UniProtKB/TrEMBL annotation:
InterPro entries: Thiolase, Thiolase-like, Thiolase_C, Thiolase_CS, Thiolase_N. Residues 269-389 form the Thiolase C-terminal domain. The keyword Acyltransferase applies. Gene3D superfamilies: 3.40.47.10. It comes from the Bacteria. Residues 5-261 form the Thiolase N-terminal domain. This is Thiolase family protein. One of its GO terms (molecular function) is acyltransferase activity. SUPFAM superfamilies: Thiolase-like. It is an enzyme of class 2 (transferase). Its EC number is 2.3.1.-. CDD domains: thiolase (cd00751). It comes from Gordonia hydrophobica. Belongs to the thiolase-like superfamily. Thiolase family.
Length: 392
């Protein structure tokens, strides 16, 4: 069985996903194409040897409706024979794209493949593909009742694990502080590629709020405590705010995956390899808890323990998610999202899994850590978990 390695990983800066955001004037196809071109330029590969481009994208409508990876391949100037496919596993789409790429190499289907993700939330608003349609149907309602939004699920998680409003805000402030510190010391420089926009070149994350303090976050109102939600869940002390949740964001990321033999033939030095991966479901009402069993499954497959992992990247969809994960797996603070997460860096849905892996690869290389684990909660009560090993 061929061994799969990650040769390089890059991402765009993170832009606020709204009108006037740093990347809002850039078509998502052009945003992804910029990342693809940078990946080819950095590695020196012949793009004609790329056998597939697997791209995570959640909002597959409007400007992201025409197989965005294929359009980006064409926009980047790749030969027309290079194909692409779109993966949609909600917030885990980009991570699943990487897992599929690795599995394809290991199966002997690919020698060289690009995996990544893109999401322009300023141009393709979250939920715009669904509109007013009912995504559940009678079968789900009969078995599980009326499911809730992710924000309400975050409240249910905070309640189940007895996570206070102060703990949510403290964690969120720390995410911004860690991301700011990492950015200021150049920790993101090697992974970010510049993006040209009509208003100039963007080369830094727009989303980090320096000086964020928990006291200031404490003044924000809980956004999901509507009358209807309070009537349904009278036991909840509503505490999820815009400040302790991930940011709506524009971004793209891409990783070059190939067989170990192919890398050697091109004299390329791999940066990392995937040791094990897992995907699983959990309670669809709590929705955001599946990273816990998925990570346990991935660790068991890797033959590793929590103590072997130098850094855990648990997507900060809401602060309650990594805090519940930390309680269950007993992860030390210093190893949980050590350079900040989606609360500070943003959450461009389909791109987040690839962005997080890019950041994790760079963090392990910079700190000398050997193993890292990343996991993403996903709508419907699912999660991906992936264990990687740094090779540099």
């Amino acid at each position: 069985m061929p061994h799969a390695v990650i040769v390089d990983a890059v991402r765009s800066p993170m832009g606020k996903g709204r009108t006037g955001g740093a990347l809002a004037d850039v078509h998502p196809v052009d945003l992804l194409a910029t990342v693809l071109k940078s990946l080819v330029r950095r590695t020196g590969i012949d793009p004609g040897e790329v056998e597939d481009v697997i791209i995570g994208c959640v909002g597959q409508n409007l400007e992201q409706s025409a197989t965005p990876g294929r359009m980006a391949v064409l926009a980047a100037g790749f030969p027309v024979h290079v194909p692409s496919v779109t993966v949609e596993r909600k917030c885990g789409s980009g991570q699943q794209a990487v897992d599929f790429a690795v599995q394809g190499v290991m199966a002997g289907v690919y020698d060289m493949v690009i995996a990544g993700g893109v999401e322009s939330m300023s141009r393709v608003p979250m939920g715009s593909a669904r509109g007013d349609a009912d995504p559940f149907g009678a079968g789900v309602l009969d078995r599980h009742g009326a499911l809730v939004s992710q924000g309400v699920a975050a409240e249910l998680v905070a309640d189940k694990w007895n996570i206070s409003r102060q703990a949510l805000d403290d964690y969120s402030a720390r995410s911004h502080q860690r991301a700011a510190s990492a950015a200021d010391c150049g920790a993101f420089d090697d992974e970010i590629v510049s993006v040209a926009t009509p208003r100039g070149v963007v080369d830094t994350d727009e989303t980090i709020r320096r000086g964020t303090a928990a006291d200031a976050l404490g003044g924000l109102r809980a956004v999901f405590g509507t009358d209807a939600n309070r009537d349904r869940f009278p036991e909840i002390d509503w505490k999820v705010t815009a400040g302790n949740a991930s940011q709506i964001t524009d971004g793209a990321s891409a990783l070059l995956v190939m067989s170990e033999e192919k890398a050697a033939s091109l004299s390329l030095t791999p940066r990392a390899r995937v040791v094990a991966s897992a995907v699983t479901g959990d309670d669809p009402m709590l929705m955001l808890t599946a990273p816990i069993p998925a990570s346990r499954k991935a660790l068991a497959r890797a033959g590793l323990s929590v103590g072997d992992i130098a850094a855990f990247e648990v997507n900060e969809a809401f602060a309650s998610v990594p805090l519940a994960f930390q309680q269950e797996l007993e992860v030390p603070d210093a190893r949980l999202n050590p350079v900040g997460g989606a609360i500070a860096l943003g959450h461009p849905l389909g791109a987040s899994g690839a962005r997080i892996m890019t950041t994790l690869i760079n963090h392990l290389a910079a700190t000398g850590g050997r193993y890292g684990l990343q996991t993403m909660c996903e709508a419907g009560g699912m999660a991906n978990a992936t264990v990687i090993e740094s090779l540099v």
